[in-house]
Amino acid sequence: MKEISFNGAVMQTYPLTAAQRIHFYTVSACKREELLNIATGFYIEYGQTDFDTLRECIYDGYEKFEAMRLRINMDEEGNPVQYLVPKEDREIRFMDFAHWREEDAHEEMRRWSRIPFHMDGGPMNEITLIRLPNNYEGLYMKVHHMTMDSSSIISFYSYVLQLYCSKKFENVEAPKPPKSYLKQLKIDLAYEENSPAMLRDKEYWEKQLEESEPIYTPFSARNRLLELREAMKNPSLRACYPTGDIEADIKVYELEDEPSRRILEFSRKNRVPVAVILLLGLRTVFSKFSGGEKDISVKNAVARRGTLLESQSGGTRIHFWPLRTVIEPETTFMDALKIVQAKENALLKHANYDPILYMGEVGARYGVPQGTSYDCTTLTYQAMSATALKGKNIPDMNFKSMWYTNGVAMQHLYVTVMHRPTDNGLSFHLEYQKNEVSEDELEKFYFYLCRALFYGLEDPSRTIGEILNWM
Questions:
Q1: Confidence category of residue 8, pLDDT binned at 50, 70, 90
Q2: What's 295's domain CATH number?
Q3: What is the pTM of this model?
């Protein structure tokens, strides 16, 4: 650990955590720093917003959320380090889009979202006060993924909104301050020093390497593994390689309120997490498009926010882990859910281990190059919902949230499932490499995902084979 001077103040620097190193190595490989931008908008419709008060609340958020004051720079040896600056008082600008077409306003913010941050000691986030057409007003926020993840972003929005309402309305309490990012950071770094917990996790993942080599399964009828086998004249190839074309876009599919409720109700009654239901749906689609393959891997984004300190300290905590299951066609939908849930429970228990280290071990074990993958899709399920804010004595108001693409993606397809702020229905955000994935493929993927999910939910005694045949 080293010290650094900032405007005369001496501050402690810290190495990156495993979650941050995932992003650092990824962006180092693709040379596109905008890959690590997360850009979102959060807008409300409730009278006229007092933007001066809202700006004060944002500055308060900068003070309370340590991760919003995080900086990343290179030390004398060229290694990335992180540190906190004591104060964030830069200008928060205001943009009035009231007389624009709304889609043009969002397109302008998409343009902002493609402008990268640089790991040179500068700010790692940018906030703009926004006035949209149709009386919606709020915030646009772009953050660097090495400093924030989706959970952190929602927590920050929640804090600012709660604080604003406490200043503007009666009987609304001010929010409780978040936990210390720095305190959690020290715990994470101590874990990596060959702690007993790390050694237990290492043992678990080493056992996974004793299994047979996984196999890449496609998300569409266009089987990329078969294409690659033919191109490389290697019929036994089981892994897929990136194309190098990472230009990306996002397509959003809105699942109606009623079928969304069916998923949530099934989850509640049967004590099966929504993420597990989604994972089974995904692997069923991949099985269909690979001729009924039983061995399926899905990349699972794990938030790692089990403790109060983890859940309220901000920062980025996501680890990406392959969830591999082998499910026979005679297995019922309910029993398949139990198989996926058991696998995910084990994965979650050992998710603090370094995924980058494990990926290197996988490559060495099976003799495949860096960047090789056995999973075609990553799933992120964002369980937090903006509707939860309405339970804090905040006046009833309409919400609108946006996720703006940064324009690049390192995988053919990312699936992010969120709760809509309007009715708590599910939104499926499909981020895809637009020169590698067609809109027709996306349409069919979403179509078959819904068929797999609801045919199984309708009668959980149906077998996976029956579901595949019906699809």
A1: low
A2: 3.30.559.30
A3: 0.92
